[in-house]
Specification:
The complex is a heterodimer of chains A (378) and B (304).
Chain A: H1 12-32, H2 41-66, H3 74-91, H4 94-99, H5 105-135, H6 140-159, H7 187-215, H8 218-228, H9 230-235, H10 240-266, H11 276-289, H12 294-312, H13 320-325, H14 336-350, H15 362-368
Chain B: H1 2-32, H2 39-56, H3 66-92, H4 100-122, E1 127-128, E2 137-141, E3 144-147, H5 148-170, H6 172-182, H7 184-189, H8 194-219, E4 222-223, H9 227-242, H10 247-267, H11 279-290
Helix pairs in contact in B: 1-5, 1-6, 1-8, 1-9, 1-10, 2-3, 2-4, 2-8, 2-9, 3-8, 5-6, 5-8, 6-8, 9-10, 9-11
The chains are: A mainly alpha (378), B mainly alpha (304).
Chain lengths: 378, 304
Amino acid sequence: MNIWKPHLGGRSWLGGIAVVAGFFLLNEAFVHGVFGYGLSAYYLRVITLVGISMVLAVSLTLVNGCAGQFSIGHAGFMAVGAYASAAVTHFGGAPFIALLEILPAWPVHTLRLWVSLAVGAAVGGVAGWLVGLPTLRLRGDYLAIVTLGFGEIIRVVLLNIEPTGGALGFTNIAQGPEVPGRSPDQRFALFLEETMFFWVALVATGTILVVGRLAYSSFGRSLAAIRENEIAAAAIGIDTTRAKTTAFVVSAALTGVAGGLYAHYDNYLNPSSFTFLRSVEIVTMIVLGGLGSLSGAIVGAGVLTILPEALRDLTRLFPPSVTAAAPFLASLPDYRMVLYALLLVGLMIARPQGLYGRREWPWLARLFLTRDGEKGVG
Amino acid sequence: METLIQQLINGLALGSIYALIALGYTMVYGVLRLINFAHGDVYMLGTFAGYYTALRFGFSEAAPSFVRAALLLLVAMVVCAVAGLTIERLAYRPVRQASRLTALITAIGVSLFLENVGQIIFGANPKFFPQVLPPQQFPVYGAVVITTPDLAILGASLILTIGLHRLVHHTAFGRAMRAIAHDLDTAKLMGIDTNRVIALTFAIGSALAAAAGVLVALRYPKFDPLIGVTTGLKAFIAAVLGGIGNVSGAVLGGVIIGLAETMATGYLPATLNPYKDAVAFAILVAVLLVRPTGILGTTAPEKV
């Protein structure tokens, strides 16, 4: 299983460079308005949040979609990753600030962000292992409920840890702890503000690639076998516990990275962002898109992140003359969450298999296949 | 000793509330294998139904009476039974053939819908339920007292639970329900009108949640459209703890969670006290790791 070499005619590194350069240019365009494509802070925020949602949805697909194990506690792993990486940035800034004296700014900031995200991934993965090892022997709904229980326990613990703000929230993550008599160091915070879209886009692409390559590998086929029939999978010699735990740990680590991105993007964390509703939201994304389909997870993340925002702007769809004639249309934004709920139920009734079912976009699936044309079971 | 007994009484009262709600979760799970996430919000509807009935008929603290409280309970139960029927017909029946996850997301959608409609129609600000029960206290042991709301909660939930138990185990309807829980397709082949039984299951579960909604408001008067979220989650945990799909298990689980929460509030050392919200979840995790199908749940051997 070599998950690092997509089938791109042997020039995968060229594609990689093109993608990175593309994201960089997009970032410049969106943030600084180069080429006249600047985005308002609001739209940039929505797009960035879509990227983070994609990381969450795609990594959850590995557990819920590929392996058929139902987790509704991923907000807990996101929280653990977010707080761990935020804590590293907040409390471990000194060596990087010292490095700033001798090196140019951007490599130092980049390194600092990567170290934090790596810690978020590691801590998320360890949390996934600790939760997964004892619980993955549970089946179906019971597994779901235990992951839910763990997610809530993690949140309550975070509420009560004082150094990271407790219930008040973790503020000024990038600026570091307050030193009396000295103004906070804003350099890293400004760097993050200007480049977060780039990092989120990069991590989202990486996550899609990693999860896709795993899903289309022999490991992914073991997961599919477990999903379809666990007893039969064990009977043909798959170490089901090991496969399930691996999937869970990888998924939790990637979710931890998403949490780290979220922490650095908002520069603020609050345990109330990681309730059970957040886990449910991620599950909803992948079920709406089509369980087991990465294309579906991507679209689901986009739809469910944009939809509540789009409904905010609903009245703009009508010309002023219409809203004047029917004033209730002007109050539609008040009902946006009601509409959101109705759309969710309506979509589930109209397309119970999700938007994409188990299908993938062909161009995306091609990235996941290995060179010798090995085909996976999606 | 006296504090302990007082805590036990409080815990039992809270536990009976959880048990009433848990019964709805467990019955619906039994027949449909669906985690009905909207159930907590039906409980919220129950509180509001009781509240508006009390307003409409001018029931208040000024003229407390048991009959009026019972009337509120009854009206709320009827309103929520109708709401449960409507939800089942409009949202759950169309997705019954789809995968269970689809049904689950539908339930989440219904839950979000009820919460947000509730906030628009009833307003998001907290309201206070008129205390229509006579404010009496009955001595039990030394300084330990039991108040009328506690007594009402314990009495009403005992009656409702026994009633439900008789319904499930001693009537033709109950037999049909158990048959569906065992195997829906076979039950259909045996001539059971499964649609009707499932709809009635929803109605009964919702009525029990409504009863819990009114009873809890008689003891803790403050409520708002989001009360169903946490209470619903804890009641659901109670159902799983006892063994989901099992009626006695739901009651047992409810009482355990209620007692554990009260005891945690009363007896945890000050440093651990902030963690009392996690107690229910910790118990759940611990129990499921030892008994993977809950305390009274049975493990059916998997067919190969």
